[in-house]
Each structure stands twice: as C-alpha cells, then as structure tokens.
Fold:
Amino acid sequence: MDTRRGARYLWFLKQGGFRRLFVWLFITLLLISIVVPLIVMVLWSLIDPQVGWEYPDLYPKAFSLHFWRHLLSLEEVPRAMALSFTIAPVVTILTGILALPTAYVLGRKSFWGKGLIEIMVLLPIIIPGITVAISLGSIFNRLGLSQTIPGIIMAHMLVVMPYMIRTVTSTFKAIPQDVIDAAYDLGASPLQVAKYILIPLVMPGLFAGGVFTFIYSIEEFVLTFIIATPTYQTVPTLLFSYLGYYFSRPLASAISLIILVPTIFTLFLAEKFLKAEYLSSGFGKF
Structure:
C-alpha cells in the first residue's frame, strides 16, 4: 500500500500536479476576493427598493434600475464626477513633468547623499496617510489653499509623486549606458540624446507611472475629504456620504461601480499599448 501511494505521489509530481494545484488555488482566491465582491456590488445596485434583499436570500428576489435613475438625477453626482475626472489628468501630467528631472538624477547620476534623498522621496507613503492629511490640511488652511482646486491638486501630487519618481527612476536605470555613449561618440548633443534616446526609452515607465497616478487620484479619499470638503466633493467623498451620513448601500454600490469604470479602462489601455517587457521595465523593482 505504501509503495502504491509513493508511486502515485511521484507521478503527481512529474505531471506538475502541485503547479496546477497552486494555479487553481490562486484563481479561487482571486474569485473570492475580487469577483465575488464585484458581483455583490452589482446586485446591490440593482435591487428593487420595494422588495429589498435580506438574509438568507443569496440574491435579490426582484431587480430594478431605481437607484441608478435616482443616482443620475442627483445634482452632486455629475459635479463630483466632473471634478474627479478633471483633477486626475491634471495631477497625472503635472506629476510626470515634475518627477522626470528628479528621476533622471536618481537613476543616472551618482552623488553623496543619494540614498538619503531616495528615502526622503518615499516619506509621503511611509508616513500614515491620515497623519499626512491632517498636517497638510493645517498647512493648506494657513496658506489659503484649503477647499480650493489648486489645493486638491497639490495634495494629490504630494502623495503620488513618490510612486511616479520611483517608477521612472527604475526605467532610467534600465537604459544601457552603451547606447548613450554611442550617441555621444557619433556627435550627438545632450539635447539630442535626451530627445531621441532618453525620452523615448523612458516613456513606457512614464506611462506606467501615469496609469498608477491617474487611478490613485481618482480613488483618493482621505486628503480630499480633509482639504476639499464641504466646498468640493469628488466621487470617493460622495461615496463616503452614502456610507456614513445617509447610509444607502445600493447608492454606494452604484457609485463604487462608477469609480471602477475609469480604473478598468485605464488598465485596458496600459495592456493594449504597452508591451509586457516595457511595462515590467517601467514598474521596476521597489
């Protein structure tokens, strides 16, 4: 009996059984952690308010677009969506412009104190978010930037800047020095090297950082809540109001699905227009 079990075990190993088992386990966990909550959100957004959805029912007994129609009829929803989808591209562009020279220095130059600067760049994401938000809110209030559009943009940029710098820095480090040396040997000027070699090669990393920056800005809540409310509301702060003040799970589910749309669309663009090896090179190793 033991011999048969040992033979079956060896056959299982040779056939890659553990590998398949691990893959199926990963897929199962992925379904439980991502797909199932997404399905639940869709169901909650489509329930009929006259019937509801109560335990022990596995799914609503009746479906309706009532909460979607109600959500789209609210004045604050279009305003919040317009504000979120206006701020996010501005934050992405400005962050990329400001991160590019810093990432170049950290990725291509060697100097004393470089390690300390790299640590300081990461401070906004090392310190707890609520601590950063409260401190920044106090500073912005004194500077007159609290509850202003420029204040919201600057706050978002402060948080996403470390990710953008780190991503683009990894891309600069991956550029072969031989290519740059060959360009100089052929008589290229520093401006030509930057225009025809550095910028094209760093674009995948810049785009990868831009994808993360855009998504993070769309979903940012803590900083926006402390700095912008009650004058301005983005989609995440509006979602909080339906989970806190008014507590409407169907409306909150519908707003959550609205937030997911640009995230999925942006990731689809990244998958569509970036080659896999460029994307991995752009994200680098943190």
